[in-house]
Amino acid sequence: MKHAVQVEVLRELLSQLDAGVNADAGGVMSCPASAYTCPDLAAREWETFFRGHPQVVGMSGDLPEPGSFITTDDLGVPILVTRDKDGAVRAFLNSCRHRGPMVEMARRGQKSRFSCPFHAWTYDSSGALIGVPQEAQFGVLDKSCLGLIELPAVEQYGVLVVHPDPKGVIDTDRLFQGISDDLEHWDWGRYVLAHEQTLDMKLNWKLATDTFGETYHFKRLHKDTLANNFHGDVLSYRSYERNHRMILCLKGIDELRGQPESAWRIEQGGFPVYFLFPNTVINVGDRRIAVVRVYPDPKDPGRSISHISYYFDREVLAENPGFALLFAEGFTRVVADEDYATAETTQRALACGLQDQLLFGRNEPPLHHYHNTFRRELGLEPLPVRP
Fold first, then answer.
1. What is the reported pLDDT for 261?
2. How far apart are CA 278 and CA 298, in angstroms?
3. What is the radius of gyration, based on Cα positions, of the chain?
4. Structurally, how many domains does the chain consist of?
5. What is the mean pLDDT of residues 18-25?
6. Is residue 45 located within the same domain as residue 128?
7. Where are the alpha helices (DSSP H) in the chain?
8. What whole-number distance in Å separates Cα of residue 276 and Cα of residue 289?
9. 348 and 244 in a common domain
């Protein structure tokens, strides 16, 4: 985020604090409860947003050097992502071309070769088939045509993106639309992975995303946690075609009053949060980020999986090796024990079918944007807003 933008945002937050106002969506929106419970809608979302759309699979810190790899099966497609010997990021269907077993079962690691456990057909980090035991006995093979099936992959702004369809297209201009200038400034490519965790929760994937969409609940639900460090009911918000940026207000902002604006830094008074369509939320602290990727259960609208990964500037970890775990534990305590735990009660209540809608206030503009963006991508009418 350029310094001029940081100053603009910090001025906005200070102005909201002084005036006692919040970001304003212009009205109250009604959202049907079926958005969280309908199996047919969930199936359409799965095919459109996940199987048919580029996905953030991690950050550059997940592949720190040539020979690094990660695997994922979150999309119903087993995927192997590597950094090849030239440093390029590659992605493949994690399946041997002989009889189909996965060639790598580990979540992450360091390897230059991947060998199928069934018959030891072996592939290098560029996906090429380089070894077939007893090849003369097997029969005639053109190994150049039998490499791992490659998937489109891009590394940009420190973000790793893979399309689960070999014929899919990754349009980075659209993918990062509206937030590319900010992401380029942060230089997350230099960050390293310090911790990761998975939350398997009984709530719809959009309910999980909703919890990152407003500050109205900070003084209430988080009165003993986030409210110690954040001003609630204050928010700088910018929405774009499908992405958005919201900046929460740290209580440290009060220390900026009287200081020259040339010395202001966003980390002193603001906590940026980026939503990257369709399912990624990046929480930005001082030289650290928490990346949340939320996935639905395609067979159960009332279940979702959240992967949370924590990346740090190397200098931060060198200065305080234990800080990563403390930060992760604190983040999880808020998200899992407060946000998601409360949202699970919402899911249970909506599942009974007696409540037909939820309300998004004018002070909750990210929720307006999330849901109408999802609906637009599915060809549905926008949700109504009343003043």
1. 96
2. 15
3. 22
4. 2
5. 97
6. no
7. 3-19, 34-37, 39-45, 135-138, 172-175, 180-186, 205-210, 266-269, 314-319, 323-334, 341-351, 365-377
8. 14
9. yes
